[in-house]
Write a structure and sequence with these properties.
The protein is built from 16 helices and 14 strands. It is of the alpha/beta class and about 375 residues long.
C-alpha cells in the first residue's frame, strides 16, 4: 500500500510521539524525516547496547554531525537515555529529538517530565476515514479496525488475531508487568464485554476470576500500553443526578473485535453496535488531538437512564451525539438528546445512524454515520 498522508502535524522542536503499536509512527517519521538519525530500540542489539551505556547516544550523534533530527523509536525500552537526551538538548542548538513510544509505563516510573518540559506530548491514532479517502470502507473498518499494520496487511484477520498476543508477549511478559499471564488473557476477554459500556470493574473481576484490585492493575497496564481508554461523565453545571462511572473503549475497534467472543449466545447486533460506537470514539479522539483543540471527550448519563454517547466540549465547541446501529431513526432514539438539549440549549445535537439520508427532527440533526466519519476533518468544526 502506498504511503497514506496523515492529519498529524508535528510541533516545532522536540516532542514525544505516542501511539499503540501498529499506528504507523515509524512509517510516518521515516517519510517526514528521511535524513534523520535513527535509533530503533525494538532491535534487541540496539536496545542492549544503549541500555548498557546510554552515553553512547552522545557519541552516535557526534559521529553524524550532519543530522538535524534524531529519532529514538520506542524510548520506553531504555528510559535511561532520557537524561542524555536532556543534556544534549541543553548543549546543542539546531538539533531536534523525536521520541516515540507505544507504552507509557516505564516512562511514568522514571518520570516522563524528565526533559523538564522541553519536549511536548503528541499522539498518533489509527487511520481516520478521511485520511483513507475512497479507500475507506465502513464495513471493513467495523470488522478489522483502522490500525495501519492491519489495514495494510495481506492477511488482516491473521494480523489482528496476533495483535493482542504480540503486546502480551513483547510488552507485558518482557517487562514482567503481570505475574499471571493466563489471568491477564482472561481479563482481556472479559473486558471486551465492556466496550462502549459503563465500566464495572467488580463485574469484570468476577468474570475473569481474579480480585478487583488485580483487575484495576490490569486495566492500568492496558491503558499504559495505549490499548484502551476511559471516557468520563460530562457533569458541567449538571441539573440532574449524573452517574459516576466512566465508559470504556479499546483504542481501535479491530482490537475489540479480535478479543470479543462471538457464538450462538452472543447477539450480533450488540457486538456491531459497540463496534460502531467505538469507531466514532476513536475518530473523535483523533479529531481532538489533531485539531489541537482545547476540548474534552465525555458522555452523559443520568441516574434515570437517559444517555448521550458523546459530548465534545471546548472553548468553541459544544457538540453532543448519540450513535445508533440502525438504518432508521425513531422518535424514541431522540429522547436522550432532547433531554440533554433541555439542560444544555447551547449544544449542537446530532444522531449518527446507519441510514443514507440527512434529516432534521425536533432540533436534532440526523447524519449517516459513514458520511460523518468521512467528513470529519481536524481543524474544521464538527459536522
Amino acid at each position: 500500500m502506498a504511503f497514506v498522508p496523515r492529519f498529524f502535524k508535528p510541533p516545532e522542536g522536540h516532542y514525544y510521539l505516542f501511539g499503540p503499536r501498529g499506528t504507523g509512527k515509524s512509517t510516518w517519521l521515516r517519510h517526514t524525516y528521511p535524513d534523520a538519525l535513527w535509533l530503533d530500540l525494538l532491535s534487541p542489539d540496539v536496545e542492549r547496547r544503549f541500555a548498557a551505556r546510554p552515553e553512547r547516544l552522545r557519541e552516535r550523534i557526534a559521529g553524524t554531525p550532519e543530522a538535524r533530527v534524531v529519532v529514538v523509536a520506542e524510548v520506553q525500552r531504555v528510559p535511561e537515555l532520557l537524561p542524555v537526551v536532556h543534556q544534549l538538548i541543553e548543549e546543542r542548538s539546531g538539533l531536534s529529538f523525536v521520541l516515540t513510544g507505544s507504552s507509557a509505563r516505564k516512562l511514568k516510573r522514571t518520570g516522563v517530565d524528565l526533559l523538564a518540559g522541553r519536549a511536548v506530548l503528541r499522539s498518533l491514532h489509527p487511520f481516520m476515514a478521511a485520511e483513507l479517502g475512497e479507500a475507506f470502507d465502513l464495513e471493513r473498518a467495523l470488522l478489522q479496525g483502522l490500525l495501519p499494520v492491519v489495514w495494510d496487511s495481506g492477511h488482516p484477520e491473521d494480523t489482528l488475531a496476533a495483535y493482542a498476543g504480540l503486546y502480551v508477549k513483547e510488552e507485558v511478559q518482557a517487562e514482567a508487568l503481570v505475574r499471571d499471564l493466563g489471568g491477564f488473557h482472561r481479563f482481556l476477554e472479559a473486558l471486551s464485554f465492556s466496550q462502549a459500556s459503563i465500566l464495572n470493574l467488580t463485574e469484570v473481576a468476577r468474570d475473569c476470576q481474579v480480585h478487583r484490585k488485580t483487575v484495576e492493575g490490569y486495566l492500568g497496564v492496558l491503558e499504559d500500553l495505549l490499548l484502551a481508554f476511559r471516557v468520563p461523565v460530562f457533569r458541567r453545571r449538571a441539573r440532574r443526578q449524573i452517574t459516576a462511572h466512566p465508559k470504556l473503549f479499546f483504542s481501535d475497534v479491530g482490537v475489540y473485535r479480535s478479543l470479543r467472543p462471538a457464538g450462538p449466545l452472543d447477539r450480533s447486533e450488540e457486538i456491531a453496535g459497540a463496534a460502531l460506537e467505538g469507531l466514532v470514539a476513536q475518530h473523535l479522539r483523533a479529531w481532538i488531538d489533531y485539531s489541537g483543540a482545547q476540548a474534552t471527550l465525555s458522555f452523559w448519563r443520568t441516574r434515570g437512564g437517559a444517555e448521550v454517547d458523546f459530548v465534545v466540549y471546548g472553548q468553541d465547541t459544544f457538540w453532543a451525539a448519540e450513535v445508533k446501529h440502525s438504518a432508521r431513526v425513531r422518535r424514541a432514539d431522540l429522547r436522550s438528546l432532547r433531554a440533554f438539549g433541555e439542560d444544555y440549549p447551547q449544544a449542537k445535537l446530532r444522531l449518527l445512524y446507519r441510514g443514507t439520508e440527512t434529516l432534521e427532527i425536533e432540533g436534532v440533526r440526523c447524519l449517516p454515520c459513514e458520511d460523518f466519519l468521512r467528513g470529519l476533518l481536524p481543524g474544521q468544526a464538527l459536522p
